[in-house]
Amino acid sequence: xxxxxxAGVSGMKGFQTKLDVIGNNIANVNTIGYKKSTIxxxxxxxxxxxxxxxxxxxxxxxxxxxxxxxxxxxxSSMTTGVGxxxxxxxxxxxxxxxxxGDERQYLTRxxxxxVTAEGNLVNPQGYNVMGFENEADAADAGEVFDxxxxxxxxxxxPLLYDSFRINREGEVIGKxxxxxxxxxxxxxxxxxxxxxGLSKFGGSxxxxxxxxxxxxxxxxxxxxxxxxxxxxxxxxxxxxxxxEFTEMIVAQRGFQANSRIISTSDEILQEVVNLKR
Length: 277
Known about the structure:
Blueprint: H1 3-27, E1 37-43, E2 46-48, E3 58-60, E4 63-70, E5 77-79, E6 86-88, E7 93-97, E8 105-108, E9 114-115, E10 121-122, E11 128-133, E12 152-153, E13 163-166, E14 171-175, E15 181-190, E16 199-202, E17 205-207, E18 219-221, E19 229-231, E20 233-235, H2 241-274
Helix pairs in contact: 1-2
């Protein structure tokens, strides 16, 4: 069988995967916190021909998918005016935790949070937003933030505080009925060494992997993570439609060219069969 036919098949498979990646990016162009994916190709093994000569005599056997990477460049910010809508102004991820079961933790850039009737700060799936409770003395609670050693779900007691706000340092400040304010929590941020190594879980969430961080999810305060929080804003998708449509044209033409290789190889095989007639 002609090697060119198998090379064309591998090329068609590769460009089909590229179209799948592009289609997913375009479908999530308005998804909050979505990070686009890019695909890279690499050649397959080459077959050695007869020896001799100064240079190797090899024929390639097609292409394959080399990597599908996630681009973690920040997306544009959209102003919502909702105090619980949060956007990170630099690297890092919010940390959310399952409220029940094994209480697994996930990372996300989607800061579309709400407060439940019990005062829990949660994401749209109901996962608790993690942070550090303020352990400063009650007399200094309005001015001093002394984070606890371990992170816990952020809770604003509705019986003690009528409202709250979140400042750029990620501090959750509750306001009592008499107008006094107190720092209740500091939001937790995780900044893995290799964000591209995170595994997409769905719902704009990421699972930690050993490729992203050998130490698992390390939760820090906003200050320690060298970032800041914008309240009343959301980070949108970083998908660029102009770029995606251009890549779609390239993938379409590549798919057509590889299909032409198969057609041409089939015509050659037909000629070989006709030699017996």
